[in-house]
Predict the 3D structure of the following.
Amino acid sequence: MNTPRSRGTGLPALTRPDGTPVRVLVVDDDPDLAEVLSGALRYEGWEVRTAGDGASAVTEARELMPDAVVLDVMLPDTDGFAVLRTLHTVHPEVCVLFLTARDAVEDRIAGITAGGDDYVTKPFSLEEVIARLRGLLRRAGMARQLDEGPRLTVGDLVMDEEAREVTRGGELVELSPTEFELLRFLMRNPRRVLSKAQILDRVWSYDFGGQAHVVELYISYLRKKVDAGREPMIHTVRGAGYVIKPVTGR
Amino acid sequence: MNTPRSRGTGLPALTRPDGTPVRVLVVDDDPDLAEVLSGALRYEGWEVRTAGDGASAVTEARELMPDAVVLDVMLPDTDGFAVLRTLHTVHPEVCVLFLTARDAVEDRIAGITAGGDDYVTKPFSLEEVIARLRGLLRRAGMARQLDEGPRLTVGDLVMDEEAREVTRGGELVELSPTEFELLRFLMRNPRRVLSKAQILDRVWSYDFGGQAHVVELYISYLRKKVDAGREPMIHTVRGAGYVIKPVTGR
DNA sequence: GCAACTTCTGAGCAGCCTCTGAATGGGCGC
DNA sequence: GCGCCCATTCAGAGGCTGCTCAGAAGTTGC
């Protein structure tokens, strides 16, 4: 009860300095997407509210005083830039993660994100959004009390998220982007069996239409690189999914 | 917790002698530009306020007692020089960084800035503004506890910001202005993967409309000069961006 | 006003990454 | 022990990313 834990992951939750849950506001005019996002963020143990347009976003923000805002650039009433400015005048400390279409006018985004803010292009994977948000909050000084900082460790497997570097037993392991994200998801849930459906939902973009077969494929890629010639850390649970756990700890 | 760190970078933050964050006032009548600037400065771990005209600038300055002011020369009510004079009577210690159009009366600027202040011509890059501000504050005796002064080091790569000189393993490396600024940004964030979008935001002018392709190009220029025939320090992380790190450091 | 340099665009190319399909292997229920 | 089904792996197509070259346009300094 002392170290707060997020509901979903086995890791200590990322909380505010006073121990209360991180507060996030999700702003998107697509209710389905907002629902998926807020579900995933609640799973992280965070307090989430949603808004469908710029006006209610500002209202909600005033009331909730969120630590971070996930903000679609294209809104029915205004654009994200105006909302950002209002938010910052109301609450200068808030971090903003923008959601934008890949081919959207990137130069405008470029200006917006110049500060501590960040953006993700649609379609994104939930892991990516969560990772970016965690990065933003960490950099804003939110992570303080519990930090392993930006480093994930399972046994002798270490992932440095900022440097995007993975080592096993001190040896460098080179991973492709998807492999990296898959491993990150596994490592953020050590000793927990993750179903292929869960993995697909989290690691692949929400509009991915493919089969669960890709997960198997990428697990096999990971094994070749991470477990190669060593005591395996990635295990199959037949009919259920996959787990990662330290070799000794069993 | 002893050495204060800036929010964004892993570097020690530049703070006031008493350890509190540097305080900066941004004065520009373009709210978008003011927003981008203050975002970037907050990212450095500084305390920022903004003002849109000369009158509120003076009011804000009286209240905040900033260490530095970023001041647009063209303001709706007065010009920057009048503001400067008022500021100096209120608060003689303050440093001023002027923002000015390229073809503005440069001799007037030159006269004013003789007194230790500095100026940057629009359109500027955020890295440039930040570097100038750091320089001003350092020269005003703000740098105190930390570091290295005007020298950045990553492995055997050394950058002297004031002399605008770069050496690798003692050998001089000659760089064009853009190359220099790109390398500075990389070296201020060692071991951290920087996306092309991030790099564009920071190193190129805020009005640059071009593509991320230029970043690749300039990275290749840098490699030819910095890594030429040596163990490479600049690494590509496919799908993520670029990192600089010392060769030995793994 | 000329020369040297700097910056940026476009095109081509090489290699990597992702995903599909199919063949093979292995565990588990019956 | 048999057969089914789940899981693993291979091979290859296609797309995409990043690197480099060449050249045009703009800028600076003499």
Observations:
- Chain A touches chain B at residues 81, 84-85, 88, 92, 106-107, 109-117, 119, 139-141, 160, 162-164, 172, 176-177 (CB under 8 Å).
- Chain A has two domains: 23-145, 151-244.
